[in-house]
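Shipment paperwork, digital attachment
Item: protein structure file
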Amino acid sequence: LVEPFLTFSPNRKLRKILWTAWTQRGALDSTRNNTAIAVEILRLRRRMGHLHGCPTFAHYQCQDRMAQTPSRVMELLETVWEKAKESANRERETLETYVRAHEGPNSEVESVEFWDWRYYAEKVRQERYNFDQTKLKPYLSLTDATAALFDVSYKLFGLEYIERPDIPLYHPDAKLYEVREGEKLVALFIHDNFARPYKSSGAWMSEYRSQHGNFVTGENKMNGIPIISNNNNFAKGQGATLLSMDDASTLFHEMGHAHHGMLSNVTYKRLSGTNVLTDFVELPSQLMEHWLEQPEVLQSFQHHETGESIPLELLDQLKAADNFNNGFETVEYT
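Attachment content:
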């Protein structure tokens, strides 16, 4: 609720109050001061690093990660940080130019502050790119998004999805698919896309059964076939269920995790699917997201009423608007 208010509220004083409270929400008063606990955690981590023959806990933590050393982690962060700052400074100039042009010399905004940024960024986005998410939504039906998803999966990995409505599941909204590579059964895939009472919020991938090849004598090899589910919380429409671009991106993101589970090829369950180090686990999902952005994928979507493809002009507006404000967003999380 905070970010929408900071983005759309014209009341600068309330934006400042909310932003200040939001950014100080982790502050503790003296009765709940846990500084001593934090210091003890750091001390124990340093001792753990020393016990493993490392000069610091950071060196120990990086040993089996892709970066391998703390210096390489910092090199990556500093490289991103410097480029993001340059971009954010250019964005600030754009926002302040907008303020001067639209609010004049009597504006209460002498410089764009933290609590102003989202509000004026949205104003510039609307003026400069004239992109309205609602214009795109009629093209993004869940039916077309799922078809595009499965098509990308087939082109990348040769996987075909055969729906099995004859097999009962835990809820009528969930769909079960056999996933095959030619004649070979690779996995069973459950797509559970709609919100409902008592369902957990958010989006996630689950493994009901992990792939493995460690069978006891005489065990049915079907026990090594993974059962994977993707779970979303889309609002179910009366007719076509229409997605936002963020929803469609989430659909593709979770399928990246599903591929990770379905295409696993290991002996032991302990190493199966997403049981990997934390610096890798999001890589398949992040890569899968980017396939949605490819023009040939987006143009496979059709308007849910007219059947027309997404206009190229709308796709160009989407790309331009999507790249705007990336400097600020990168600085914020770096």
